[in-house]
Amino acid sequence: MAETDGELARRLASETGRLLISVRPGDGDRIAQDFLAAQLEEHRPGDAVLSEEAPDDPRRLTADRVWIIDPLDGSREYAEPGRTDWAVHVALWERGELVAGAVAVPALRQSQRVAHRQPRIVVSRTRPPEFAQRVAEAIDGVLVPMGSAGAKTMAVVRGEADVYLHAGGMYEWDSAAPVYVARAAGLHTSRVDGRPLAYNQPDPWLPDLLICRPELAGVLT
Is residue 114 included in any domain, yes or no? Predict the structure, then answer.
């Protein structure tokens, strides 16, 4: 039986992650891109692809199905020995909606849900939003710097953090798969002001992103 789109997304994210582990600290971006491109061409040859590591193909704008991928999210962290906060993103957009997605955090071998006294807000290591501290104060929270949008999202999914807050811009491939996984886990996803997220746009730039526990969404948006 052929793989479903969800099964394919999960397999490709996992296999790409294992490949990246095996070649680390090699040229992970190129190796992961070549692998994912070949797999999608073999298993979904009729679909369009939007990838961080490939030239934008305008045919995606008239396609019904577009795979939005980030072969290695967190290249900086991947290159630093011992860091686990890098990820592989594989998502599928179909006729206006994200319909499948997977995020692999292959260097993270073990995780568990931990109770925290204060809400934990994961933010970029290098570009935390200027207003993040005000948000933390509003919910009596604490900021936790971390690399990779996928790694930050999965920290919220696993219950190790409560909010992922980003401003200053990102691309669709940075958030498509994380957003799909977050929604599947019952989390709130939106722009920071509560507006909906849109994908496969002519300009793949997204200004900001909020992923959080549903009970915090009303306070944060």
Answer: no
Q: Is 73 annotated in some ligand binding site? A: yes
Asked whether residue 72 is marked as a ligand-binding residue, the answer is: yes
Give me the CATH number covering residue 181. Answer: 3.40.190.80
- State the total domains in the chain: 2
Distance CA 123, CA 67 (A): 26
Domain extent at residue 150? 120-220
Give per-residue pLDDT as tens, 40-67. Answer: 999 999 999 999 999 999 999 999 999 9
- Cite the DSSP H helix spans in the chain: 5-23, 28-43, 75-78, 132-138, 149-157, 172-184, 214-220
pLDDT at residue 221 in the model: 87
Judge whether 52 is annotated as a binding position: yes
What CATH number does residue 80 fall under?
3.30.540.10
Average pLDDT (6-25) is 97
- The answer to the question of whether 174 is labelled as a binding residue is yes
Q: What is the pTM of this model?
A: 0.96
